[in-house]
Amino acid sequence: MADLEKKAKIRKGYRNLLTRRVKEGDELLKGMEESGDIDHVKLGQIKLSVGEKLTALKKVDEEIIELIDDGEAIVREIDEADRFNETVYEMLARVEAKLKKSVEKESVSAYKSSVRAKLPKLDLPVFNGEITKWFTFWDSYKAAVHDNPDLLPVQKFTYLRSLLSRSAQECIAGLTLTDANYAEAVKVLESRFGNKQRIIAKHMEALLHLDPVSWQGNTLALRALYDKIENHVRELAALGVEANTYNSLLPSVLMSKLPSELSLAISRKLSEDDWKFDKIMEELSQELQARERTLPKPDSSRRTSHFKESKPQRERPTSATLHTSITHCCYCDEEHAPESCTKVDKIDKRKSILRDSGRCFICLRRGHISRNCRSSIKCSLCSNKHHTSICMNKRESSKEGESAKRFNPKADPFKSATLLTDAKGTILLQTAQATVHNTESTESATLRLVFDSGSHRSYITEEVCRKLSLRIVGKKDLIIATFGNTGGRRQSCKIAQAVLETNEGNTLVLNLMVVPLICEPLVGVSLNDCIRGYDHLKDLDLADPGTNGDVIELDILIGLDYYWDIVSGE
Questions:
Q1: Please, how many CA atoms are within 13 Å of residue 396, restricted to the half-sphere of its CB?
Q2: pTM beyond 0.70
Q3: Would you give the end-to-end CA distance of the chain in angstroms?
Q4: What three-state secondary structure class fits 366?
C-alpha cells in the first residue's frame, strides 16, 4: 500500500510539471501567431521536454495499475490517465504542425530564389541515329529530362521527340504522344541503338576507315586525324574496351594513315617493346605540337583579292577576271556574252533593243539609265563609259575578223599570250602566286597560277612536275581543244599530286594533269599603274604582285575542278 501511495505522488509531480509545460507551449504558440515569427529553438525544447516527461508518466501509470486489484479502480485510473494525456498530445501536435509549416515555407522560398537565378541555357544534343553517339546523347538527356521528377511522362516524351532526327525519329514515329508510350519509346530506342557490342564494332570500323593524310606538311589535317582517333579511343574506353585489347591491330592501322616521313620519324623513336598504340599516339602528339608551334600565324588585317570568300550581297566589277558576269545575251535571248552576239550584230539595232527593254547602256541591266548607273565598267575597246557590245570601234575589229576568214581554216590555231590588248586598255588576268609542295617530301616552290573557269580540269607543266618530283597517281586520256579550233587531239596525260598552300596557311591537295606547256610566256605589266586607274583595287593586296614588263610563265592552270575551292576560300 505504501508503494502505491509513493508512486501516486510521483505521478502527481509529473502531471504538475507537464501541466506547466503545456501552458508554456500554448502561450508560446499564441505569441508566435500574433507576431508571425517562429522560435524554432524554444519549440524544439518544449517538444523534447514534454516528450520525455510524458514517457516517464506513462511508465508510472502502468506501475500503478499493476498494484491495484479492484477492477473498477483500474478502469478509473485508465480513463483519468487518457484524459490527461490527450491534453498533452494536443499541445505536441500544434508544436509539430508549427515546425513543419515553417520548414515548408523556407523550402518554397529557397525554390523561388533558385528559379529567379539566371542559369545558363542548357542545349541538349540532337540524336540522329548515329549509333556511336547514343550513350553521349542518352547520358545528357537522362540527367536533364528522364530523371527529372517534376516532369510528367508525356512531357518527357515531348522533349525526347524534339531531340531526335533521321533514323532515330523514324524509329518511334508510330508511337502516339501519351504517358504510357514514353516508357515504350525509351525501350525501343535502347534496343535499337544501345547495343554495346554494335557500338564497339562501329568505333573499330570507323578507326579502320579513317582518311589518310598524304602530306606531312598538312598540319591541320594531321591534327584532325589525331583528334578523331582520340575521340574513338575515349569512347571505347568508356565502353570498357582497354587499349591492350586492340594493341595488335591499331598500331599498324594508325601508321598507314600517316605520311611516310612522319611514320618513319615515329618508328625511329620507339623500340620494339614500346611499339604500342598509346606510345605511338604520344609520339604523334609531340610531333604535332612541335609542328603547330612553327606554323605561321595568319595576319587578320591582311586583305587579299584571292582566297577570300566574297560577299554575296553586293556584286562589284573587277578587272581580275577572265569572263564577264553577264552570260545571257539580252539581244537574242541565247546563252552567250552580249558582245559575242552574231544574230544582232548592228550597233543601232542593239541600242534600239536596249532602249525598248529599258536597259542601261553601261551595265545592260534593267531599272535605270546610263546617267544613273553606279557601275564602274568601261568599254574594253575604247575605255569609255558604255558597254563593249555597243562600241562603235567594234566595226574595225569586225572587219579584221572578216578578213581572217580568208585564211586556211585547217591551219593550226594561233597562240596568243599578251596582257596588252591595245594602247589604251590593259587587261589583268586572274592570276596568283602561291607555294606548292610535294606531298611526300619537303620540296616546295613559289609558282604562278592562272584561274580559268572555262577549263574543266587543272594542269601543271612538265618542268614544274619534274622540278618538285611530284608523285604520279595515275594517267588519263584527254581530248584537248584550243580556242579557235573546231577539232581536238587526244593526248595521254599523267596525273600528278601536289599541295597548294595559301597565305593564311590553309592547304589543298590537287590532282593536276601534266602537260608540256600551259601557254606561251606572258608580258607582265606594272600593277601600280593599273591600280591607279581602278578605284576598287586600290585597297586590295593582290594575290599576284605582277612584274614591270618582264616575261613571265604560267606554271599551273586551275580549272573548274578546284576553281571555287580556292576562290571562295573553302
A1: 5
A2: no
A3: 109
A4: strand
